[in-house]
Amino acid sequence: MSFLLTFIGWGFAVLALAGCAYQLLAVRLLRRLLAPPQPQDPETWPGVTVLKPLHGAEPGLETALASLLTQDYPGPVQVVFGLQDPTDPAQAVVGTLRRAHPAADVALAVDASEHGANRKVSNLINMVGRAKHELLIVADSDITVDPGYLRGVAAALGDPQVGVVTCPYRGLPGRGLWSRLAAMGISYQFLPSVAVGVGLKMAHPCMGSTVALRRETLARIGGFAAFADQLADDYAIGAAVRASGLRSVVAPVLVGHLCTEDSLHALVRHELRWARTVRGVDPAGFAGSAVTYPTPLAVLAIIFAGAAPIGLAALGIALICRYLLQRDVDRMAGARTGPWWLTPLRDGLSFAVFFASFFVRAVDWRGMRFRVDAQGVLERIEEP
User: Fold this and answer.
1) Is 14 exposed, middle or buried (0-12, 13-18, 19+ CB in 10 A)?
2) Is residue 73 part of a domain?
3) CA atoms within 13 A on the CB side of 89
4) Do residues 16 and 142 share a domain?
């Protein structure tokens, strides 16, 4: 038994060291992902309609939405906000923005119609009829952007062979420990994984941070209605565009995701839904991502190998590599997401969520519970 435990410990140590190599590779590929491209501005800038489905007035919502109304973009810009509940407090936030930016072209669609289990997509179906322009950009309500955001996205979509554009994102912490930990998970775990997947051509992400496509492309893939029951609607849109013969690209435009989790329960519930979504999209890749948690793996090596030198060495190397990755992510983002001393706690929590996600058969989303089948289709669980 002692030999078996030691053997298992060595296995975890090897995985941890492989995870260290992954961390260093992620730094290199993230620099490549976010490298500014050579200027290739289109001759004419197309009109842009940004669709922002809303649900509730979470902290920081006004700041996130206002960032769209101060864009440095040469063409016409329209922003359409969508609500399904006329009593939703987000409507007051939209009113405040309209008063603060009277020259902005802002529309508000309030429609309770549901077209499937995915309420965000139902909201988009209700909103898209208000769109004026050819270029459509869907972005989650908690996404904050810099003034050059629309320029970068429109330029990336200038190639006629590109059908959909998305953007990488980092975490923006709000107040409190749980919000900080949520943001660190995005900046130091999720963002590097995107860089590696794209850099090694192992993944073709299409993320809720930005889904930009032409109106004709949306029609070609069946409109938003084709995704009304999908949990990973953003990924499904990207896959459908690629299946139509067009490319999907990740623009070198880093945006911010506002993290508002105020409790451990809220954090775990949110991240389990994310993990379940990724597992449904790419089961094999998700299982293989276990190697991206070198610190917990090194701790397991120490536990099983009885504090053997290999486990201790793996832990030391893992902590150094995690520090280097965190430092470089913060430099490229131009701001620090979280302190280094919280990283081991964040890594342990991430690994626990990863492990738990294999046993999740339902997810909580916007106050409702859904079953998710093998194809990522949602089925609402009615409360007794």
Assistant:
1) middle
2) yes
3) 6
4) no
Q: Are strands 368-372 and 362-365 parallel, antiparallel or unpaired?
A: antiparallel
Considering the domain architecture, whether residues 48 and 20 belong to the same structural domain is answered as no
Range of the domain at 225: 41-167+211-250
Same domain, 238 and 352: no
Q: Contact 197/166 with Cβ under 8 angstroms?
A: no
DSSP 175: S
Backbone torsions φ then ψ of 102, nearest 5 degrees: -65, -25
Residues 24 and 158 in one domain: no
Answer yes or no: is 378 within a domain. no
Tell me if 191 is assigned to some domain: no
Same-domain status, 96 and 232: yes
Amino acid sitting at position 107: A
Q: What is the three-class DSSP state of 362?
A: strand
Residues 331 and 241 in one domain: no
User: In whole angstroms, what is the distance from residue 193 CA to residue 172 CA?
Assistant: 18
Q: In what order do the strands lie in the sheet with 368-372?
A: 362-365, 368-372, 378-380
Query: What's the domain count of the chain?
Result: 2
Q: Does the residue 368 lie in any domain?
A: no
**Tens-binned pLDDT, residue by residue, of the chain (384 aa):** 576 777 787 788 889 999 999 999 999 999 999 887 665 666 778 999 999 999 888 888 999 999 999 999 999 999 999 999 889 999 999 999 999 999 999 999 998 888 888 889 999 999 999 999 999 999 999 999 999 999 999 999 988 999 999 999 999 998 899 999 999 999 999 999 999 999 998 888 899 999 999 999 999 999 999 998 887 889 999 999 999 999 999 999 999 999 988 899 889 988 888 887 777 767 777 888 888 999 999 999 888 876 567 778 889 999 999 999 999 999 999 999 999 999 999 999 999 999 988 887 666 655 556 555 555 555 555 554
